[in-house]
Amino acid sequence: MAANETALEDDDEIRDRDYVGSFARGLEVIKVFNRHTPRRTLSEVAEASGMTRATVRRFLLTLVREGYAETDGKYFNLKPKILEIGFSALSSMNIWDIAQPIMNALSANVQESSFAAVLDGDSVIYVARATSNRIVNVGISIGSRSPAHCVSTGRVLLAALPDAEFHQYLEKAKLQKFTPNTVTSKVKLRELVEETRLRGWSIVDQELEISLRSISVPIRDRDGKVVAALNVCCPADRVTPQDISTRILASMLEASKDITRALQA
Prior knowledge:
The chain is of the alpha+beta class. It has helices at residues 3-10, 21-31, 42-49, 53-65, 83-90, 95-110, 152-159, 163-172, 186-199, 241-264; strands at 39-41, 69-71, 75-78, 113-120, 123-130, 145-147, 202-205, 212-220, 226-235.
């Protein structure tokens, strides 16, 4: 094994001298673009990232030059090439090769789209999906993000955090209101996350988008650690809250157990 590889394994934490601050700030610039704000001005990116306009301008123009973003002179947006970065990571996660057929069966059974998501800061990232044979399916793409506070995947994943990490999340979180149903009180969010932790699943009713209901359960690895959230999204006019909490929940809990059993094989 090369000496530099050994050094990486021996270090419990990355030393300050090995930390590239400019690279980290560049990643923060990328993360301010999401499905709700796919286009932003220079000033908006600077405000969202907490950096100066001059710093953000250099990062954005670098992304444009490398083909990861584009601009019309006022607004910037990411280009599909940016997905290459995420897909490189996702393709190395063998768990999704195992989970995909189980998710396919789940979607066929409940006749709704299913997704898997992981927590990344104050957002969730969707890393796998399966669709039903219905004409209308919920259109969440792999690699897209949603704010953790107002989606059921987020509440399941926040519930799995150690208390200190969840407290840190709450301290820093900006709970944006997307619909009249969105929970923006940190006290209320804490209660809902605690409730999720106790019962082992979460239902969110039209907090991110009106007419969209969702339910999520944890996906655990062979050691019992929560590694992702399994999710089913449903149009509100097609599925009632009672149907979600009975028929769909039962199928999801079984699918989650199947994934865990498959990981142990």
